[in-house]
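This protein record is not my work; I was only asked to verify it. Take the sequence as given and treat only the tokens as open to question. I have pasted the whole thing underneath without changing anything:
***
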Amino acid sequence: MLGTVGSVGGGYQYNDGNVNEVDMSAMPTPGAAKTGAVTLTMAELTGNVVLTNFGSALALTTPTGAQIDDYLSNAKVGSTFNLSIIQAAAFAASLTGGTGVTVVGAAATAAPGSAIFTFRKTGVGTWTAYRMA
């Protein structure tokens, strides 16, 4: 969960502190651009950004819902995380759900372009990836 970072006194605040401050979080450095169809690792899936650069349509498959549960062992039904896919080449990159993962909305990015997905835990071993933008 993101928190606000106070401009006076510093530190992390949650819920009723500094509601008019900027929400900030940490993000790992994106890995090398994907250049072929792959199943994303959990670190890639939860790392916020996946870069792609391929000369034809490209499919990115999520890990299974059970694998996501194993990796995010404290996730409860309703827990969410975001993933952005950025396609640099003139061909679409599409998100495909592994077993137990349902993709809702347009799965393909524009070419070139980007897409943002919010993953939401819907049950044991089941997640839904909602296309947000």
